[in-house]
Design a protein that fits this description.
Number of helices: 20
Number of domains: 4
Radius of gyration: 27 Å
Strand order of the largest sheet: 2-1-3-4-5
CATH architecture of the largest domain: 3-Layer(aba) Sandwich
Largest sheet: 5 strands, parallel
Distance between the termini: 64 Å
Helix content: 40-55%
CATH superfamily of the largest domain: P-loop containing nucleotide triphosphate hydrolases
Structural class: alpha/beta
Number of strands: 16
CATH class of the largest domain: Alpha Beta
């Protein structure tokens, strides 16, 4: 199907590398840089949609969008943004946009957006949250890989229900953010979301924290106390790292979940509770069941709706997305303009294994912003463990999509090229002419390859 679109932008649709032109493949495009002329053309022409490119300033973009709304343009307006944010999505929706799309994008993504806005019910307002989910973000979480898009979609589907959820993932993958997103999209969002760290307390104190206790029930119980189950009534209770519960506490927790009634430590009376339980774990509960470290009946009771968060090393191009986002965030906080990462620095960050996942990435980018925020981040600015990282692929890290496979191949090839160039220079005392001759390349080609990797001799040739 060919879409007829009116493109409003400061420049004609031919960006670097031909990306915008490629995205518009299969569309009949009428280009305008004057928003007033574009509004008139949209009002009288036969267009499927208006594509409004983000202007030189955000206020200019909103002003253009406002003009289309005032002109009562009869076709949906899609705003094209290079750096979409939740705040911007809310603003464009309020000003009448039908969708908000990251730009440049692929032709498939653009045509999907055009089909979406054409099929939308005119009476239904655009949803800024869903728009941002399509722009690689959801409730503060960012991710463009297939695994994270599945997580975002699953949260939206399960949030309105009251089913128990088990969120599994390595430390630092963002399990608590998933829990908060579920709560904010649930019918319990106006009631408390309380969390209990199952690793922080001894079993007796943990039971008191969860179920409460009566005065005098144990040494130090100088007053009756409500437990988190009671305080979280009608809300959501998070059991963080539930794998650390003792077997005795697991049994008591199972009884509460099955009866929906809780009894304080040292009490004989039971109290009814209405909560939604969400548990998180960075260990495999199924394996713990096999070894007898976790009760099978409790595992099945918790694992009603499982959500598995992928480690950062399996998330395709999300390192680049997250690193740039964190750098902009911390740079704004410090009042400096982010210069971004060099191509070589970003390539090396994508090679690194990230054992601490998103949390580790965030902390490293914060350190880089504090130390080097006013300049472009280069390889030499990175921590040594990131600088020295080499690509590695295990059986558990095989790419899941074609895009992830291409990204991984690119990382491996570029890293191999880089090591090839460094070794060639080292063998020839950093002399480019000698290194090119020894490896069998023309000097201009060797020099061009050095430039593409941001490399140069460490000292002047003798």
């Amino acid at each position: 199907m060919t879409h007829r679109v009116l493109l409003v932008a400061d420049e004609a649709p031919s960006g670097p590398g031909g990306e915008p032109a490629a995205a518009l493949h299969g569309c009949e495009v009428q280009f305008h840089h004057d928003p007033e002329a574009a509004a008139h053309a949209a009002a009288v022409g036969d267009f499927d949609a208006v594509l409004l490119s983000e202007g030189a300033s955000w206020s200019k973009t909103l002003d253009r969008l406002r003009r289309f709304k005032e002109a009562d343009v009869p076709v949906p307006v899609v705003v094209l943004a290079r750096h979409p944010t939740v705040e911007a999505a809310v603003q464009v929706v309020r000003h009448g946009a039908a969708d908000y799309l990251r730009w440049p994008c692929s032709a498939e993504e653009l045509h999907a957006a055009l089909r979406r806005v054409q099929a939308a019910d005119d009476a239904a307002p655009a949803d800024a949250t869903k728009i941002m989910a399509r722009c690689h973000g959801f409730e503060g979480m960012l991710g463009r890989c297939a695994a994270m898009r599945e997580v975002f979609a699953l949260i939206e589907r399960i949030a309105p229900a009251d089913s128990t959820v088990l969120v599994a993932g390595e430390s630092g993958t963002g399990k608590e953010m998933v829990v908060r997103a579920i709560h904010r999209h649930s019918r319990r969002r106006d009631h408390p979301l309380l969390a209990c760290d199952c690793t922080a307390l001894a079993p007796t104190l943990l039971e008191s924290e969860l179920f409460g206790h009566v005065k005098g029930s144990f040494s130090g119980a100088i007053a009756t106390k409500q437990g988190l189950f009671e305080v979280a009534h009608r809300g959501t209770l998070l059991l963080d790292e539930v794998a650390n519960l003792s077997l005795e506490t697991q049994g008591k927790l199972l009884r509460v979940l099955e009866s929906r009634r809780v009894r304080k430590v040292g009490d004989t009376a039971e109290h009814e509770v209405d909560i939604r339980l969400i548990a998180t774990t960075n260990r495999s509960l199924a394996e713990m069941v096999q070894t007898g470290a976790f009760r099978a009946d409790l595992y099945y009771r918790l694992n009603v709706v499982p959500i598995a968060l992928p480690p950062l090393r399996q998330r395709g191009g999300d390192v680049r997305l997250l690193a740039n986002h964190f750098l902009r965030q911390f740079s704004r906080q410090m009042g400096v303009e982010a210069k971004g990462f060099s191509r070589d620095a970003m390539r090396q960050m994508e090679v690194y294994h990230w054992p601490g996942n998103v949390r580790e990435l965030r902390n490293i980018v914060e350190r880089l912003a504090v130390l080097y925020g006013a300049c472009r981040i280069e390889v030499e600015h990175l921590p040594w463990e990131v600088r020295e990282a080499e690509p590695r692929v295990s059986n558990t890290e095989v790419p899941r999509t074609w895009e992830e496979l291409k990204a991984l191949k690119r990382q491996i090839v570029e890293n191999l090229e880089r090591q090839f160039l460094i070794a060639a220079l080292d063998r020839c005392s950093q002399n480019i002419t000698q290194a090119a001759a020894r490896v069998g390349m023309q000097r201009p080609n060797f020099h061009a390859l050095l430039r593409s990797h941001g490399l140069k001799p460490r000292r002047s040739p003798q």
